[in-house]
Amino acid sequence: MVDSVLFMGGILNVTLFGIPLYFFSWAFLLVIAGLIWLVYSLVSWKAFEPLHGIYYAFKAKSKAAFIFNVNLQSELISEAKAKCIFDYAKDFAGMNPVKYDFKTNEFVELPILPGPLGAFQRRFWYYPSAFLDIDLLHGMLYKLGGANHDVEIAKKMQNYEWDAKHSVTSGGVLIDMIFDANNWSVQTSPEHKICVRLAEVWNEQNPKDQVHAYSKLQRYINEGKIAAPYGFKSTFVCKWARTDCGCPVIINNNAMAGARRQMAADLVDQNKHPFDKWLWPLILAGGGIAVLILLMRFALHFI
């Protein structure tokens, strides 16, 4: 029999609060992972907050929108936030799996599997599948990835009657220009709550001609189909001083937008900090060392 040599002199066998020291190394790794995520969030994600609308639009396979208020202050948001009256994720929060029957215009509850399978089914049910043909696997992937399909839902509920007037393309995503002077798209505003109530009443009375977009609601109000409450404005009088428009004189450079974007990406990769380049190798190496330590400790019992 050969005497075994303790790894690092047995220092990892020291107990703290009755727990071997090497157990705390896992907590240390979790703290390091949290710090790395925080640095990434602040440096690589938070810094590009004005462009988040493009990211969400690209992930949802929809468009983005520059939305302007009465003071011509703009914000780049997803098409769903800019055009959809209803927040379907909030409406279906906590509901059992259902399917919308477009023939009867009613929701039909889906059968729930017994036991843990039923809990799993409720947990990973993806609400757009109530309206769209999305299988369980893709629904789970979309839900875990945070993909938003509200625009597709609204289009289908409106028989694909949808206003789209994109003005520019950024990062491969079409972008609309929307002027919202009356705060309809601000979900905390009283005007938005009135829009929701008017659309709900109309949809209940006209299930074959539903309203799910601000533009269609505005058109129906202006045509007199929907009666808006007193003081609710569906139009805005724009002063002449605010109708000025600036257009580029030389537009040839727009053709080089994609090439310049690639040049910028290459420049970022070239100047990337060594810490970013070696991050994953270091994490994998650390995990490998941890597994090696466990295997060595397991092997020592048989030597």
Summarize, please.
The protein is of the alpha+beta class. Helices cover 44% and strands 11% of the residues.
Give the helices and strands, then pairings:
Blueprint: E1 15-16, E2 19-20, H1 21-45, H2 52-59, E3 64-68, E4 74-78, H3 79-83, H4 88-91, E5 98-101, E6 106-109, H5 116-123, H6 136-145, H7 150-157, E7 166-170, E8 173-179, H8 190-205, H9 214-222, H10 257-270, H11 274-277, H12 279-300
Parallel strand pairs: 3-8
Antiparallel strand pairs: 1-2, 3-4, 5-6, 7-8
Average pLDDT works out at 78
Question: What proportion of the residues form beta strands (DSSP E)?
Answer: 5-15%
Low confidence ranges: none
What is the overall silhouette? extended
The order of strands across the largest sheet is 4-3-8-7
Question: Which structural class matches the secondary elements?
Answer: alpha+beta
Biggest beta-sheet profile? 4 strands, mixed
Terminal CA distance: 7 Å
Percent helix? 40-55%
One letter per element, helices H and strands E, the order comes to: EEHHEEHHEEHHHEEHHHHH
Beta-strand segment tally? 8
How many domains? The number is 2
Gyration radius over CA = 28 Å
Count of helical regions? 12
How does this structure look, described?
- The chain is α+β, with helices and mostly antiparallel strands and 303 residues long.
- Helix content is 44%, strand content 11%.
- The strands form three sheets. A four-stranded mixed beta sheet has the order 4-3-8-7. It has a two-stranded antiparallel ribbon with strand order 1-2. Strands 5-6 form a two-stranded antiparallel ribbon.
- A hairpin with a 2-residue loop joins strand 7 and strand 8 (173-179).
- The longest helix has 25 residues, at 21-45.
